[in-house]
Amino acid sequence: MRRAVGAAARRLVTQHRWASSAASYNEDIEVRWRDMDRYGHVNNTRYLEWMEVVRCNLLHRLSTESGLPGMDGEPGEVSPIVGAISIKYIRPVTWPDTVTLENLFSEIKDNSCTLNTRGTNTAGDVVFIATCKIVMVNYTTGKRTSIPSELESRMREHEGDFSG
Q: I need a surface site. Which of 4, 15, 120, 152 has the fewest CB within 10 A?
């Protein structure tokens, strides 16, 4: 059974290559002992937490570099919210390890975009691939709104997608 799962994971990885032409935003996450579950690997919910931390850091960085407020959801501000997340778990992660999350934007539209994330362990193995649809919302009206042009411009510097 393990051999079949490993082969399927290898096929999945070869089908999803990370675009190397774009400048991905990368952050390292150190696996903590408490991240593991009773089955001896990192619990699936931790991947969502890791993605949240990196997504918030990335968007805060880009908004600050764009001269926009930190987009923290104060009334009257435009802020990103998560519309959908999809994760493909490829290999189990265990402690101790460090997972590098590489991030690129794609499908940048008027009021939404997709953040593509690839996680790799210290051995260089891809451990998960994820997509997160981000929607811009005006917190006063509670409705979708356009991505500020300054932020969109910065997002496009980190634009790319899976290929292959």
A: 4
